[in-house]
Amino acid sequence: MSADKPTAPEPEAPALSAPGRLTPVVTDLWDVEDSWTLAAYREHGGYEGLARAKTLSPDELVALVKDSGLRGRGGAGFPAGLKWSFLPPADGGPRYLVVNADESEPGTCKDIPTILSNPQALVEGIAITSRAIGCDHAFVYLRGEVPHVYRRLLHAVREATEAGLLDTGFGLDGDQPLRITAHAGAGAYICGEETALLDSLEGRRGHPRLKPPFPAVAGLYARPTVVNNVETIAQVPAILARGVQWYASMGTERSKGHGIFSLSGHVSRPGQFEAPFGITMRELIDLAGGIRPGHRLKFWVPGGSSTPIFGPEELDVPLDYESVAGAGSMLGTRALQVFDETVSVVRVVARWTEFYQHESCGKCTPCREGTYWMRQIMARLEQGRGLPGDVDKLEDIASNIAGRSFCALGDAAATPVLSGIARFRSEFEAGCTTPARELFPYAASALVESAR
């Protein structure tokens, strides 16, 4: 498509109808009857963004997403438009879009519900992004343990294809149909790392690749590839339909827009809350009905199990990338896990350590061996059988994993151990003499009473 073709004007920014601090956009259809169908999606303005995208050149689309300030929702928060712009000039060969739906980290719960309840937002986002990068074949890498979600995604792709929405406007020449392939992986946390995902998608064992080259240069099948998270791509249609100014009016100066915040644990109404960046944990807990009655907050994590632990003193930290990092943690995937005073930090960190040890791909020694050693020590401390010097040894092992592993999984495994010891060292030391089950009985933390 010619770059000098008249472009559609910026749409007038509609007012958000949500009360208070919530900004339902991707989640707006979740409670609509048959929300996953194309009919319901189009009835609520679906595919208006793609219609506008087809009036813009690829360069204009990339510039528009850059101007919006959209950042990747997979954890790192890298600017999406900037990532798209890293693709080299067209050489006549294929280029690909790969959507990372391998949602695996404990506490993270936004991409699977999005595909389940509003898959057409993802399909439309894939179409717009594919047009922007000159792609005519996109892939969605999904966890195979969620077959019902996989089937719903397949149905959404089929509906959009049969409706003719993906017939033309894609590829390097802008006149090709778009093919979307949904791929069900075998279920490995390591495949959430973009290069391990690409290896798995190509039929090999999911191991992270050495970078450079980066996927933008040599990704899927050694061709230029954009890898983005489900939520990132699902945000794109609203930006096209409602305008850059609308999107950039939410959030903070450097963390623009809105995102899905997943609250779990000891709150009265756990769930997903779509809100602008900069909202605080105190506000989100209030929206979730507060800490469960009769209890008080002990600790929480802002971005899943791989992020440093926060306490009550951080409740008013704005939940944007810069503010959370400035307070000593990471926003990550906004998997906000809440724990009250009945919870043993040692028990929680032990479960997280077991997860990371199990999910380590084994490619590098620090992660492969270090997570196994940490798991052994954490098991001793939880059972009250810790040895003299175990806490110092645990801290030393974690410090030698962090920053020394092949990919970020090693850092993710070390982080809860190091931050847990830093904030609750006395609980770890108590594990040398007293089991966690005695200090913090299981029943006290349970959300549901036993039927017996």
Automatic annotation (TrEMBL):
The lineage of its organism: Bacteria, Bacillati, Actinomycetota, Actinomycetes, Actinomycetales. Coiled coil: none annotated. PROSITE patterns: COMPLEX1_51K_1, COMPLEX1_51K_2. Its EC number is 7.1.1.-. GO terms for molecular function: 4 iron, 4 sulfur cluster binding; FMN binding; metal ion binding; NAD binding; NADH dehydrogenase (ubiquinone) activity; oxidoreductase activity; quinone binding. Pfam families: Complex1_51K, NADH_4Fe-4S, SLBB. Belongs to the complex I 51 kDa subunit family. Its cofactor is FMN; [4Fe-4S] cluster. Residues 1-20 are annotated as: Disordered. Keywords: 4Fe-4S, Flavoprotein, FMN, Iron, Iron-sulfur, Metal-binding, NAD, Oxidoreductase, Quinone, Translocase. NDH-1 shuttles electrons from NADH, via FMN and iron-sulfur (Fe-S) centers, to quinones in the respiratory chain. SUPFAM superfamilies: Nqo1 FMN-binding domain-like, Nqo1 middle domain-like, Nqo1C-terminal domain-like. SMART domains: NADH_4Fe-4S (SM00928). This is NADH-quinone oxidoreductase subunit F. Residues 346-391 form the NADH-ubiquinone oxidoreductase 51kDa subunit iron-sulphur binding domain. It comes from Actinomyces howellii. It catalyses: a quinone + NADH + 5 H(+)(in) = a quinol + NAD(+) + 4 H(+)(out). NCBIfam families: nuoF_fam, PRK13596.1.
